[in-house]
Amino acid sequence: MYPMKKKERLYISDLLEDPAFTYPSYYTLSSAMMKNEMLHSAIIALHSFDFSYYEVPKSFDDVFTMFQSGTFPIFKEKYIVGYFGGKMMYLESNGWKGMPATEALFKLENWLVY
């Protein structure tokens, strides 16, 4: 039996003094993700609604370039997306969830990259 990896809560209020929106108020993350500054940057951009460094990708290559560089694109100005173990995952309050392959996923205008 493998020991469960300890998860921690990263509160939005720890990253932003006055977030544009506070839901979710925290994300449950692994220790490694708690220290990931690229993830912190994406969370700050999402919760401050400051997408000045982001743009709609020209192709899906732009999205996968972000995954390969260890950064996180944003989907529908609502979710931070990561790519782990060959799976696209989106971040929810209680952790990373598998991204369902819906029609919206295949529309470039739903993505933000930098």
Keywords:
114 residues, alpha+beta, 5-stranded antiparallel sheet, two-stranded antiparallel sheet, 7 strands, 26% strand, globular
Describe what this molecule looks like in 3D.
With 114 residues, this protein is α+β, with helices and mostly antiparallel strands. It has one domain. The chain is 26% helix and 26% strand. It contains four helices and seven strands, in the order E-H-E-H-H-H-E-E-E-E-E. The protein has helices spanning 12-15, 31-34, 37-48, 60-69, and strands at 7-11, 26-30, 74-75, 79-84, 87-92, 95-98, 111-112. The strands form two sheets. A five-stranded antiparallel beta sheet has the order 6-5-4-3-7. A two-stranded antiparallel sheet has the order 1-2. A hairpin with a 2-residue loop joins strand 4 and strand 5. The longest helix has 12 residues, at 37-48. It is globular, with a radius of gyration of 14 Å. The mean pLDDT is 94.
Q: Please compute the radius of gyration using only Cα atoms.
A: 14 Å
Q: How many helical stretches? A: 4
Question: Segments where pLDDT lies below 50 for 5+ residues?
Answer: none
Sheet with most strands: strand arrangement: 6-5-4-3-7
- Structural class assignment: alpha+beta
H/E series: EHEHHHEEEEE
Q: Tally the beta strands.
A: 7
**Percent of residues in helical segments?**
25-40%
Q: What coarse outline follows from CA principal-axis ratios?
A: globular
